[in-house]
Design a protein that fits this description.
The chain has eight helices and ten strands. It has 227 residues and is of the alpha/beta class. It has one domain: 3-Layer(aba) Sandwich (Rossmann fold). The chain is globular. Bound molecules: the ligand O=C(O)c1cccc(C(=O)CC[C@H]2O[C@@H](n3cnc4c(=O)[nH]cnc43)[C@H](O)[C@@H]2O)c1. The ligand O=C(O)c1cccc(C(=O)CC[C@H]2O[C@@H](n3cnc4c(=O)[nH]cnc43)[C@H](O)[C@@H]2O)c1 binds next to helix 2, strand 3, strand 9 and strand 10. This is Futalosine hydrolase. Its EC number is 3.2.2.26. Belongs to the PNP/UDP phosphorylase family. Futalosine hydrolase subfamily.
Length: 227
Amino acid sequence: MNNESNDGSRDALLNESILIMTAVEAEREAVLRGLNGSVRFDVHLAGVGPASAAALTAGQLAAGGYRAVISAGIGGGFAGVAPVESVVLATSIIAADLGAETAEGFSSVDELGFGSSRLPVDAATAGRWAQLLAAGGLQVCAGPVLTVSTATGTAATAAALAKRVPGAAAEAMEGYGVAMAARSAGLPAFEVRAISNAVGPRNRAEWRIKEALQSLEAAFKILTEVL
Ligand SMILES: O=C(O)c1cccc(C(=O)CC[C@H]2O[C@@H](n3cnc4c(=O)[nH]cnc43)[C@H](O)[C@@H]2O)c1
């Protein structure tokens, strides 16, 4: 991130923390291990799903003192884009199932005229983080990360989502809620997902949660040097 504010109050800005929201405790612990005691971060639980994530993120932000928010955790990776154990940095955070089913197919809230399902992420920052993680030896990609209320469990839904959002890299369940709360507070939002499983037919036994948590820890170990 660019730490220079327009009025030159760089020191004041650097005194502010970055809020990191994870869905569950195991993700929180992985992020904390990566941060290795750095006091410039607060890591809190968002719960599972966008509604819980938005409410709990807004609650944390109400105290003030933050300069950015990151939604972090494990996630599903789209085939051919984000393999298991890789790390995805969001270039946009998209509520992929927020809309209406019609006879012609899915209509997003954007098409319905009810707001935006797509929240942009500062591309320069996401790109820089991706370069750093790659230089640190992690398998990384930058692309759209979808937020869904129902984790995908079939090849048909995976294909529909990939068609709905060309280039989709990952899906998870909290990013849009975290980013909406950040936007309401006037703060930039980011999303970091370590891939535990492929988006597609559900087979929980195949999820590589331990390995994904290790990737998440490794990602924050690198990011803590630049955030
Ligand atoms: O059982 C465990 O030990 C464990 C440890 C860490 C995390 C979990 C979770 O189940 C986290 C749920 C969280 O993960 C995201 N996620 C992961 N894969 C997907 C997916 O394919 N589609 C959607 N979401 C996914 C999601 O953000 C959940 O909140 C368990």
